[in-house]
Amino acid sequence: MEKCERQKNLLNSLCSSEMNLIDNTTDPESLLETKRKQNVSGSLCNIQDHTFDFFRELELKSRQLLTYGKLVETKSKFYEVIEKLLLEDMQSKSLFADLLRKFKDEDNDHDMLAVTPFCDQCKIYKTLDYLYTELVSLFIKVSINQFRKDFLTALSVEKSKALRQKVKEREVKKGKHFDLKTFQYDNSVNKIASHLRIKSEIMRQSETLEINSTKAQLLDLCNAYGVKISKKQEESRNQPVFSKSSP
Fold first, then answer.
1. For residues 243 and 195, what is the distance between their CA atoms, to the nearest angstrom?
2. pTM for this entry
3. How would residue 30 be classed by pLDDT, with cut points 50, 70 and 90?
4. Distance (Å, rounded) from C-alpha 68 to C-alpha 59?
5. C-alpha span between 220 and 226 (Å, rounded)
6. Which of these ranges, 41-50, 100-109, 140-149, 175-184, has the smallest mean pLDDT?
7. Cα(210)–Cα(235) distance, rounded to whole angstroms?
8. Beta bridge partners of 15
9. Are 234 and 213 a contacting pair, CB within 8 Å?
10. DSSP string, 16-32
11. What is the pLDDT of residue 202?
12. Which of 176-198 are b and which e, b meaning 16 or more Cβ less than 10 Å from the residue's Cβ?
C-alpha cells in the first residue's frame, strides 16, 4: 500500500491544475487542446511544461526508430527492439529523473548530481525505475499502434494505385478503352464492329458517349448514322438513336 501511495504521489507531481498553468505555462494553447479532447469522465489531465518536454523528446526519439527500414531489419522483434533502445536511453532516463528530483533529494542524503540518473543507492530507485519502465512501455505501444495504422494506410493507397494502373494498362492493351478516334481504322463491312461496340458501351453505361466523346465527334457520328441533329441539341439525346440504329 505504501508503494502504491508513493507511485501515485510521484505521478501526481507531474501534473498541474489548469488554473496554475494558465499563468505559468509557455504554451497556453495546449490547455485549450486538452479541454477540446476531454471526454465525459474528464480523464485527461494537464501536465507541467517540463513533463511535456520529456514526452516530446521521447516522441522525437521514437520517430527516429519507428521507420519502415527498422521494421524490415527487426521483423517480428520490432516492438522488443524499439522498447529496449528507449528503455536503455540514458538521456531519456536523465530527463525523467530530473522531473522527480525533488522527491529524490528528500529521500537521500548524498549529492544527487554526483550519481547516475537511476542510482541504486537512492531509496526511491525501485519506484523510479518501475514508473519509467511503465510510462515508456505504454508510450511505445501507443506509438507503434499509430505507426501500424499509418503504414497500413500507406500500403493500401500504394496497392490501390498499382491496381488501377494495371487495370488501365490491361484495358488499353486489349483495346477495351472506348475512344471514337479508333473507329476510323475499323475495316469491317459497313464498320459493323464499331457499331456493335457502340451499342455494347451504351448498354453498359448510358452516358458513355457524353463522357468519352467530344461534341464534334458526336456530330460526325450522327452524320454516319444519317441522323439529322442541330449542333445546339444536347449530346445525351443522341444515345437512344445509336442504340437502336443499324449501320
1. 9
2. 0.55
3. confident
4. 17
5. 10
6. 100-109
7. 6
8. 47
9. no
10. --HHHHHHH-S-THHHH
11. 82
12. eebebeebeeeeeeebeebbebb
Exposure of 65 in the CB half-sphere (CA atoms within 13 A): 21
Higher pLDDT, 88 or 224: 88
- pLDDT value at residue 230: 61
Cell 520517430: give the residue: 63
Alpha-carbon distance of 16 to 46, in angstroms, equals: 6
Q: Inform me whether the pLDDT recorded for 3 exceeds 80.
A: no
Query: Of how many residues is the chain composed?
Result: 247
Which residue type occupies 237? R
Residue 127 CB contacts under 8 Å (≥ 6 apart), including other chains: 3, 6, 7, 10
Cβ atoms within 10 Å, residue 208: 17
CB 218 within 8 Å of CB 235: yes
Contact 118, 112 (CB under 8 A): no
Q: For residue 64, what is its C-alpha cell?
A: 527516429
Site of grid cell 528530483: 101
> pLDDT class for 241, splitting at 50, 70, 90?
very low
